[in-house]
Automatic annotation (TrEMBL), chains A, B, C, D:
Function according to Swiss-Prot or TrEMBL: Catalyzes the hydrolysis of 10-formyltetrahydrofolate (formyl-FH4) to formate and tetrahydrofolate (FH4).
Keyword Hydrolase found: yes
Reaction(s) catalysed (UniProt annotation): (6R)-10-formyltetrahydrofolate + H2O = (6S)-5,6,7,8-tetrahydrofolate + formate + H(+)
Enzyme category, top tier: hydrolase
Membership in a protein family: Belongs to the PurU family.
GO terms, biological process: 'de novo' IMP biosynthetic process; one-carbon metabolic process
Enzyme Commission code: 3.5.1.10
Pfam families: ACT, Formyl_trans_N
InterPro entries registered for this protein in UniProt: ACT-like_dom_sf, ACT_dom, Formyl-FH4-Hydrolase_C, Formyl_transf_N, Formyl_transf_N_sf, PurU, PurU_ACT
Keyword check for Methyltransferase: no
Protein's organism: Polaribacter filamentus
Protein name listed in UniProt: Formyltetrahydrofolate deformylase
Amino acid sequence: MKSQVVTFLIKCPDQKGLVAKITNFFFEKGFNILSCQQYVNSIEDTYFMRVRLNADGTNITKTELENSFLELAQPLQFSWSVNYGDKKQNVAIMVSHTSHNLYDLLERSKEGRLNCNVKMVISNHDKLRNIAEMFGIPFYYLPVTKETKLAQESQVIELLDSNEIDLVIMARYMQILSSYFINHYPERIINIHHSFLPAFQGADPYKKAYERGVKLIGATAHYATEDLDEGPIIEQDVKPVTHESTPTTLKRIGADIEKLVLARAVKCHLNHQIIVSGNRAIVFPEAGE
Amino acid sequence: MKSQVVTFLIKCPDQKGLVAKITNFFFEKGFNILSCQQYVNSIEDTYFMRVRLNADGTNITKTELENSFLELAQPLQFSWSVNYGDKKQNVAIMVSHTSHNLYDLLERSKEGRLNCNVKMVISNHDKLRNIAEMFGIPFYYLPVTKETKLAQESQVIELLDSNEIDLVIMARYMQILSSYFINHYPERIINIHHSFLPAFQGADPYKKAYERGVKLIGATAHYATEDLDEGPIIEQDVKPVTHESTPTTLKRIGADIEKLVLARAVKCHLNHQIIVSGNRAIVFPEAGE
Amino acid sequence: MKSQVVTFLIKCPDQKGLVAKITNFFFEKGFNILSCQQYVNSIEDTYFMRVRLNADGTNITKTELENSFLELAQPLQFSWSVNYGDKKQNVAIMVSHTSHNLYDLLERSKEGRLNCNVKMVISNHDKLRNIAEMFGIPFYYLPVTKETKLAQESQVIELLDSNEIDLVIMARYMQILSSYFINHYPERIINIHHSFLPAFQGADPYKKAYERGVKLIGATAHYATEDLDEGPIIEQDVKPVTHESTPTTLKRIGADIEKLVLARAVKCHLNHQIIVSGNRAIVFPEAGE
Amino acid sequence: MKSQVVTFLIKCPDQKGLVAKITNFFFEKGFNILSCQQYVNSIEDTYFMRVRLNADGTNITKTELENSFLELAQPLQFSWSVNYGDKKQNVAIMVSHTSHNLYDLLERSKEGRLNCNVKMVISNHDKLRNIAEMFGIPFYYLPVTKETKLAQESQVIELLDSNEIDLVIMARYMQILSSYFINHYPERIINIHHSFLPAFQGADPYKKAYERGVKLIGATAHYATEDLDEGPIIEQDVKPVTHESTPTTLKRIGADIEKLVLARAVKCHLNHQIIVSGNRAIVFPEAGE
């Protein structure tokens, strides 16, 4: 594990002594604690922790570490996961017609600003093929109709699974996914919605925003769940607008918000900053990373 | 009219030559045009204009001006209003328990940062009396129950009308007003709602925001209409929050947003910057004012 | 001129009747005024106007229009320019090592979100060649040393002039241009500086920002003038940061601000929204465009 | 110490095992750790920690706690402080002519939104006396001239010291304090400067902002040090502005930023969220407080 940053995400019932017990555990195993972030939800009496470790001072193996940790974890009722930072996550991007999020994600990935391998772009339209090709990423055109929906989803799932995709990014993929699909990748599908949810769920949020005369528009990145636009929110942002904006102008202004919001959310996910709790996403900030 | 700033607000079907015709009219009457702002809604083919005039170069009377203007306005189907800036508007503030908006409005008014006379504070609770008294503003305690609602509203209306109130500010007045009341003061009641509408309409928006796990909270100032929290939006703002915030913390963070949003909306109204069109508020920015 | 949007930018001493005279002029020539924006600088008694016209109702030629307008303009001492929207402007992008602004501008241009022809990318390093090539844009590698500076600038000027470049974008071109170069393209070179000017002028602003412990970082797009980082500011933005950020993190966070700020500034320039007055840039907002 | 929130602030050279050692210490003494926040400055190899403890499970006395803690602190070279939350801090507000910050601080304090006792308002002008009196706070009018500067400062110091003032807030006190005064209250004087420092240090920042044509204005709250406007920055914010704003308008817009920035900085200080390190202020966010 030398030279690796090991990240533990922990959730458990709140109780006295947690931080001491957990940090002691890692200290005794010879780890250097790079950062240790906590959140106590006092309404639900739940404790959340993100610990980042440097493994340079220890010879422990992954199996030994995990077995030891289990002994700590079980009596304290931890839900937990660990990432060893030893392999980049595989990402698939799903799109339809809209190009701005795709460009942005591919550029960030190519320039090393997103820590992942974009393995493929999947679309129900052939329109954005040239963008994937510019960046040398395989593009799969899988059209979909009401009738072929389940069959197309099976094709998508096969693609994702055979490529060992860790994260699916719906970068303006304008199709509603089936429950089966969604539940196949729990907390592993991130969607961008082009409004400041819960306002303007569903279709045409910019048109609705115009009609409602709002003075700001926004975007929301969230984990996809069975309930459309209802999943745990990872990131949101807005920008002020005036009466001058038509739905078309709002769409243009919104594109820049969508890009930033989705990229930030994906970065937090890839960086193991997120613990989902019910319908809320606990998103720890970067800690000197 | 010497030394006065005269403001015309105009709405009409869009057509060629409007700005030339209108500005010519004022130029020929001897006015100096301080600013002239337009908005064309090309979806509804509607034209909106706000003109601010300096009357120093003319001896025309108000009646002459308005009669002349009517001749221009009728064939072009103007809806219009004019304000001569010769008297401060009378304002009533309605509150319940929450003090931050009240303090803020009274301070701004006292320090000359809101161009109005706050004539009274009306509340269904006695709690904030001391604040009104600190600022030397009459405080009317008019408690309300389900049974006495209409009677209490009649008392309020009487107070407002006998004091020639031009604008009613609902500064966290936690009562739903009757249609009769609302329609008695069309486009003359401004309400502050403690969420970024249309998200979290109705009661307890901060609790709902916590439960939905949103990453920003906000406030919305709008004209009150019969449909609760559905009136034309004048001003909105938001602030980022994290999972750390409880409903109580959100309430505290939100208070600062509410203060600014309501104060800005009231200023725009008092300054004749707003034309309402359907459910949208056209809010012209200040023009060197 | 049919189907074109004609834009006039006017600056003159303030005087009574300007808006009436100017809008009348265009009305009488048969133009439809799409928007008419004004700004009066009452400190310097100067008047600024941006008028957008639809030429569908007129058969006037450009020469006739300009000759007629001159008769209006001269007695009123107008500085003015007109654009007929009939040809896209030619743009050159200058870069060094940093790629994020280049990607962003090329993407926007390719996707039709920036109304221009990017004719070339010029760099003193060969590093970003592949990005230009991805987008099919000619890339010129013109290295520079202290000794070859003037010679290299001559090469650049020749490239720009022979390609009839209308706008030069310094998208993190980390060289100080000579006065000769700068003055060759007055108000036609836009630079992005990676701080919220006038804070942190000169080199290494993110390092300075870290050392000063500021709680926000930003970026500034401005016209290049002889005084480094002192030219008229077109657009600025900032983002909150915390003590957690190292100079490296600030650089990464700043990249997203730089992209948006430069793109917005370029858009305003290409869209004829800017009038420079002394060291201030009057930037009219879009008007239903 | 029952029912109290005890807050430790610690700074020391970075080294392995710090979080485990410190949290263990408190766990063994019977404290419940409410929150534990860290920051590692890897450039200077320095470690910072803020720990909040609930003392309900322990009978330890303050002296015992501090003596024990010293044994931990000395070998690890801690700089540290502890606050027991058992008495409200005493605050003095210094003002000149400008009222908005004073109103805001007095309102927040009165309404329980700032955890302190405002013991007095001190001014070199008599103008704002009525505001202090509205809120029932003693007002000291201590005029100052070049000649009487040191004498006046002595009077101020006597007032502050005899009232056991913990924090001095310069809420637009437009006098430069002597080094003697400043050094008498290290990290205990917070000043609000009406620009986004380090831009526009010194006098008349809004005039300078107008002349420089910046597209945003701001405010900065910092600890006062001998170097004017150079002290550690606690909080900053900005707001976009346009060319329309005169210095007077900027002043008005800026007032709202100044209020929020100063109030937030004071809250962080009173809440023991700040550790100063050189010229940088480490400001921990609230942790579920």
